[in-house]
Every structure is written in structure tokens, then in C-alpha cells.
Amino acid sequence: MEPLASRIRPKNLKEFVGQSHLVGKDKPLAIAIKEKHLFSFVLWGPPGVGKTTLAKIYARALDVEFHHLSAVSAGKDDIRQLVDKQNLLSKPKLLFLDEIHRFNKAQQDFLLPYVESGEITLVGATTENPSFEVISALLSRCRVFILNELSDEEMMKIIGRTEMKLSKAAKEWLIGMANGDARQAISMLEAASKLYSKITPKTLADTLQNKFLRFDKKGEEHYNIISAFIKSMRASQPDAALYYLARMLDSGEDPKFIARRMVIFASEDIGQANPTALVVANEVFKAVEVIGLPECAINLADGVVYLCRQPKSKASYEAYGRAVEDVKKFGNLPIPMIIRNAPTKLMKDLGYGKGYERYPKEDLLPEKLKGKKYYHHEKPSKE
To answer: Is residue 353 a part of any domain in this protein?
Structure first.
């Protein structure tokens, strides 16, 4: 049976809820649909806010040949088959590429000429910043539309479309759990209706805890695993870190998300104990970006073991935190005259930059903070 979320999916903009800055009167996508303007664009926003629905509404309104691929499982052959496929009705081909950020650089390079030539109109969907995830040549040929998390009022309207009887308390619990993700809310509601005759906050909570149900990356388990992964590297335990790495990749986690956390870890937890760790982590991220799954798992594993084996020091990270505290406490303290910029004669006459030497020995902190020490050198922990 077709999932509830699919059955109640809006078929036109009148039924669509949310994203009024894009689909309201005289707004970009509303104008494009009204004027039948066919062009490539990327929809960037959190899960369950209408990216797929908008792509389908757009394709239906413009009467194009709609093709839906997920970048998680699709590859060059899928693009090639789409282009080679005969179009008996002579309709333009629109490719909706879900999770476009999961296409690696080589795959995006392969797609680019078809978008350039107009053989394919591309509508990409992503939860990640496209300026980081989509190659510049492809991104320059697409408009980027940012979708917002759904408000509680908008979520209430969408839940109402299910026509299920719910108490106010149950609706509020569901909205709070879904955190602006309409698809998750509807899937949760559908699952609860199959398990229980009456839907209440308790039955919804019991449904959420059912071990047979699997929720997306905003769920608690996602954060539990990434936490375990980081803490295993911090404890210099490569076996545990590799296990949690395998868990994340097996569950479909974006390898670039993992690589980013490794780059952060290299500075936050290793820092001055071995600054080269940041270089290695960045190279792992680049490898993941270029190679993609499944092979990039090897790059991640290699990087994880390396980071685990490095001495650890949080001195720089903690020093920055102490500096931030003073910035918030004291605000914009006057900068010492000796290190102020002096681009004009008036500023020089006022003493800006007076007495400055390339390697001054005097304390360059603002007067109120003279003598303050944020960075304390510490002996790195061993592997």
C-alpha cells in the first residue's frame, strides 16, 4: 500500500503548505510555474519540508517528462540511460536528483554537459550547503532556493490533511517530536495508527521506541553513534572508532558528514599536540569528496586510525573558549594605539600605529586585559 505521506502529497501550489517566500503570490517558484519557465535549480533545506513535493508540482505544471533518481544509489549509467531513452512525446526531460550532495565530483562532472546543453533540466534536492557540495560549474547553471523548517502552524495544517482524529495534546507531541519535518510526523502518525486504536502522546511515544521502526538522521541514534565515534577517537581506541564508523556508513550516513567531524576533531582534540593531524583530516575529506562510496570508506578508516593514534591536546580549543568569554564579558575594548591601522595622515597624527615594530615584545591585548593568558601549554596525552 502506498505510504500515507505519498497519498496526501499536494498536487499543486494551492494544496502546498509552507515556503511562502518561494511559492506565495509573485514569489520565484510561483512565477516560474505560472509562466511555464523551465530552468535548472537546487532546493536546499532540512528534511521533510517539501523539496520532493515542489519538484513534482513543478514538473506536473510544466508538463515535462519527470525522472526521479536518488544520488545515494544512482550513478553515471542512470544518467546515460535517461539521456538515451527515447522520448516519443517530445517532452523536455526533467531530472529530480534527490540528495544531490551524495553525487561525487566525477558524477557531477558527467552530468554537467547534459545540463549545459539542455538535454536535461536538473532539479536537485539537498540538506547540505550546495556551495560546498555541488561543483561550481554545475551550481552556476542552477538557481538555488532555500527552504525553511516548517512552523508549528504549518505542521498542524499538514497533520490535518491526514484526516486522523487526534487530541490537541497528541498533535503538539507529534509536532514537537518531528521538529519541522512533515514526512517524519506523517510516517510516525501512520505507524501509530497501525499499532494502536487510539492515538495519544503515550502511544506515539511507544511507537517511537518500537525497535522495528527506523527514523532518519534527526533521530536520537544518529547523535548517539556520532558521539560514540568522536569519544572513541578521543580515547585513542581505533577498534571502537572503526566499529562506529562502520555502523554509520552501513546505516546510510553521508561520508562527508563523518569526514567533517574528523576535521573538527583534528583541531579540537589533537591541536598543538600534532598540527599535521589537521592536514591529514583535510586530505581525508578531499578524498571522500572526490572518490565517494564505497571506496572512500577506506580513506575514512585510514584517517580514523591515524587520528586515534595521535597525542591529544585541547589547549588551543580551550584557549579560544576563554578568549570568547572575555569578548562577551567586556565587549569591544579599545585596541592599543600601537597596533591600530593608520591609512590616513590624520590617523598617523593621532598616534595610530606609532612606535610599532614588526616583532614587538609588549603585550598587545587591550589595556583592560593586559597580562591575561588564554593559551596554556600542556603536555599532550599519549596514544
So the answer is: yes
